[in-house]
Amino acid sequence: MTDLTRLTAPAPAPAAALAPAAAPLPVVLAGARGHGRWHLANLRRLQHQGRVRLAGICELEPLTTEELAAFGLQGGDRPEQSADFGALLDSTGARAAVVCTPIPTHTDLALTAASRGVHLLLEKPPAASWAAYARMADGVRRAGTACQVGFQSFGSHAVPAIQDLVRTGAIGTLTGIGAAGAWVRDDAYFRRAPWSGRRRIGSTDVVDGVLTNPLAHAVATALELADRGTAEDVLSVETELFRAHDIEADDTSCVRITTTGGLPVTVAATLCAERAGEPYVIVHGDRGRITFWYKQDRVLVQRAGHGPEESVHGRTDLLENLVDHLERGTPLLVPPERTGAFMRVVEAVRTAPEPVALPADAWETRYDAPGGGARRTVHGIDGLVAAGAESLALFSELGAAWARRSEVAAS
User: Fold this and answer.
1) pLDDT at residue 40 in the model
2) Which positions ≥6 away from 74 have C-beta within 8 Å?
3) Which residues contact 180 (CB under 8 A, 6 or more apart)?
4) Cβ–Cβ under 8 Å, residues 253 and 272
5) Were 352 and a residue from 121, 147, 189, 239 both cysteine, which residue would form a disulfide, CB within 3.0 to 4.6 Å?
6) Residue among 33, 45, 108 at smallest CA distance from 323
7) Is 0.85 topped by the overall pTM?
8) How far apart are CA 103 and CA 364, in angstroms?
């Protein structure tokens, strides 16, 4: 097992010598298929740089020789594989783990790692309920292990740049934050796993809705730009949850969070867009606005007395940040406490009434998904989602015929 003292910054070396580099951090990846493939590629990238060593892969079904070869893992370079996460951490001497598994498993796997002193990059959402999140956060805190939650947008250098603009009054007094996400997902998306599109399985919470999983970044990033990321920052949450697909969870929804300072944060999102668009957050001020396309790290500033200013920013990888934290004490970008407000939203969605099925005349089936697959499209939803971010209004307030206030609930 790697000695923790080797993960701290070395003392300055004499001028004639170079300080030894820290040993690569041994990492186990839990969940290497689906989105886990992105993490596998990222681990390989960092392994080539000497920052980490992919020590193990935890999957119910081991990756095949062909799957491993696709990532350049051959011969002695292949990591150990096991379906037993705890045993794999023990046998590999892992000092960190990336958890990219179904949402309901996050808390137990995080606590399994923490009990062994293993640090974490935990995919979003960190848990399916407030109780599970609190149990996870308390467990890693008690264990003294580092935990980074996988909201990659928080690594964008645009985030502190926007926060600086707001603090210095570039757009005047902050009046609200709006976010919009219009994505296309075909019917097969909701069959990709047994938990897809589910609110719960038996007594186990899943909460795989548009706001809490696929477009969770829109919610979390909006709260981060409002500088209201902790649980204590949330005063109330209003939800309007709908579904066009034949699923339990919501695929077309909006939420309005009122912060303790009275600032409204409204997010409108759908997986039934007419045309797929880049999700974005609008920071509204009384003398201007800032639009942030968070997947592209692109920022547009529009303010009184200035022409439009557009910029593209760099990004810090969250696993690299975790390694830097362990080696040099660099602050974590997304510790669990910075996702408390987001988890208040998850809890509001979890406890809200069941999503309302949209009437048949509100959507249509198209066969233009990749590979000719079928998908459902809600009429006019692209404009409605954009209007929500623009006006900070909910669907029912924007006049959608299927969003009558009597059919939705506030929590």
Assistant:
1) 96
2) 68
3) 218, 267, 268, 269, 277, 279, 280, 282, 385, 386, 388, 389
4) no
5) 239
6) 45
7) yes
8) 30
Residues 63-91, mean pLDDT to the nearest whole number: 91
The residue type found at 225 is L
Whole-number Å distance between alpha carbons of 286 and 133: 36
Q: Are strands 25-30 and 80-82 parallel, antiparallel or unpaired?
A: unpaired
Residue 12's pLDDT band, with cuts at 50, 70 and 90, is very low
% of the chain beyond a pLDDT of 70: 93
Q: How confident is the model at residue 224 (pLDDT cuts 50, 70, 90)?
A: very high
Q: Please state whether the peptide bond connecting residue 125 to the residue before it is cis, i.e. omega within 30 degrees of 0.
A: yes
Give the list of residues 6+ apart from residue 283 with CB closer than 8 angstroms, or none: 162, 166, 171, 174, 177, 225, 226, 289, 290, 291, 292
Q: Provide the residue type at 378 as one letter.
A: V
Q: Note whether 262 and 155 are within 8 A (CB).
A: no
Is residue 31 left, alpha or beta, with left meaning phi > 0 and alpha meaning psi from -120 to 50? Answer: left
How far apart CA 263 and CA 234 sit, in angstroms, is 10
Measured between its terminal Cα atoms, the distance across the chain in Å is 48
Q: Which of 290, 267, 268, 253 is nearest to 341 (CA)?
A: 267
Q: Are 241 and 349 in contact (CB under 8 A)?
A: yes
C-alpha span between 141 and 150 (Å, rounded): 17
